[in-house]
């Protein structure tokens, strides 16, 4: 049929339709409308079936067999309740030769705690650490008290033979640091990754924590150093049977582990599987030692905080700001500066917050600062400036004391020992146990972490809260013979008992 013939037939049909009565046209329009509605329903049915098939495939097939999708477990805010029977214990290292009164607070030792964690490990042990020197080969002192560190190293090396996987994330060692411990651990089957925080943030990996079987943790001031067991005063916390918290700390370890890859860079933002819902605003709700507790972990520096993670500095400042009655602080070093910057820079974030609390809310501030031969001279004028706020007329209450670990002639020969290395804060509401000294670099450039616990008052039939335990430690040290008011002391050389 010719095109012209087709065109003529189409034109004739159109003309005929135009000449149809209105009633017939209405019936034909209704038929077209019904057909269109049926088509829409059919398309919608197909789309719903396709979506349902996709959901079922994702739920029942992909999680078990897909090599392409990584499962991401991000708990909703309604899941911030942990039913584990969590138990927290303060852990201390008291240097050899230090003695307290007979009725003083005594906590389990770091050595005993580490040893128990190693012996109880069944499947995995992850350790984040600054450096490793568990034998005294590096000091050449042949010190008998290094035996505890050597025993810890020996037991760690046996873990892979027991089928326990061990991963170690450590700050990239300096050129002069000995690597004997790390090499021995690698030979035993441990996997070690060195994290170059100097390249990433111009800092170091200063964190000190353990995760055992994704169920138990240790976090505190003690380095993987034999001196941290017998020659340096340390404080940390062990939390047992608390998989919710251990797995959240595991996300921080995984961040270090990722950054230990060659040429790794810090993601921005971090992938979703590093994120958390446990933070200052929505803490983990848990029974801790039989008492209701709100718990979260903070991290530094900000670049290492995935979505939901509270920055350590923000955590610290908010704890001071929330205090109503007192803020008691025990740290080795306190400097309102960027301590390792060249040229030096003033950094007043924490200092301002303490002065604000004392002035605006009349909060009682106490600082107990470590004092040893390596204390920086610049620290003392700043501390005396804080102490000068203490005034009977204005009722500002700021006290500063220096804590000096005793040292004899033999102990003086042990390098980098005999100091109060604690890094914690306790208020009328919160227990804060960290891994950082208090100067700007540690919160802005250096990798650190902290455990933050808020508890209601304990019942008479259960153990003291972590806040009560920490307050007891602070009072013991504050009132001990090793504590001296900074205003009663003179030159730094005399203050710090330099041998």
TrEMBL record:
Residues 201-228, 416-442 form the PLD phosphodiesterase domain. SUPFAM superfamilies: Phospholipase D/nuclease. PROSITE patterns: PLD (PS50035). It catalyses: Exonucleolytic cleavage in the 5'- to 3'-direction to yield nucleoside 3'-phosphates. It comes from the Eukaryota. Its EC number is 3.1.16.1. SMART domains: PLDc (SM00155). The keyword Membrane applies. Pfam families: PLDc_3 (PF13918). One of its GO terms (molecular function) is exonuclease activity. It is an enzyme of class 3 (hydrolase). The chain crosses the membrane at residues 38-61. Keywords: Exonuclease, Hydrolase, Membrane, Nuclease, Repeat, Transmembrane, Transmembrane helix. GO terms for cellular component: early endosome membrane; late endosome membrane; lysosomal lumen. It is found in: Early endosome membrane; Late endosome membrane; Lysosome lumen. It is a single-pass type II membrane protein. Belongs to the phospholipase D family. This is 5'-3' exonuclease PLD3.
